[in-house]
Design a protein that fits this description.
This protein is mainly alpha-helical and 168 residues long. α2 runs antiparallel to α4, α4 packs across α6 and α5 runs antiparallel to α6. The chain has 7 helices and no strands.
Length: 168
């Protein structure tokens, strides 16, 4: 947009976007949610996640509330930039896609050197590829667990309507 004239092929983007519109969660809120979730004993955390995967809730309301808050801040964007809006699912897929390329480069380097011993750079590429697979798998599992926790929580949409709304 130049001088208020809109070109037909120009896509106009807002100059500033309010962080509240994006659902951005600040670092203090993330830290508080992580601390609250880590204060729940490991056994109870596992029970909450397993119950959420089955679509159920546990009896421990404090652990369930901490899990819901942690899941919400984990899936929420960290800022306005595209790199701060990357979800664990996207990161996991990127890492799992990058791992074979690291292994391919390591194999090509090994074949190009032709030496019986592997160079240090080859070991670094192999190690980085293995770490990328493990981290990608962790990110995908984190996304799945957070979505399961939020799906198991009762929402306002599933709450029963009042009798006044049911009257004709």
């Amino acid at each position: 947009m130049i001088m208020g004239v809109r070109h037909p092929r120009t896509i106009v983007h807002p100059v500033s976007v309010d962080a509240a519109d994006l659902g951005v969660v600040g670092s203090a809120e993330r830290r508080d949610a992580s601390r609250a979730w880590k204060q729940v004993p490991t056994r109870q955390r596992l029970e909450v996640v397993k119950a959420a995967r089955r679509g159920q809730l546990t009896d421990d309301d404090a652990a369930t509330a901490a899990a819901q808050r942690f899941a919400m801040v984990t899936l929420a964007p960290r800022g306005r930039s595209w790199s701060q809006r990357v979800t664990p699912r996207i990161m996991g897929r990127l890492l799992l896609a990058a791992a074979p390329f690291g292994l391919a480069v390591a194999i090509v380097e090994r074949l190009a050197l032709g030496a019986p011993e592997m160079a240090a750079a080859t070991w670094v590429l192999v190690g980085a590829s293995v770490l990328a697979v493990l981290w990608g798998w962790f990110c995908l599992e984190l996304q799945r667990d957070c979505e399961a926790i939020l799906a198991a929580m009762p929402s306002a949409a599933s709450a029963p309507q009042s009798e006044v709304a049911d009257r004709p």
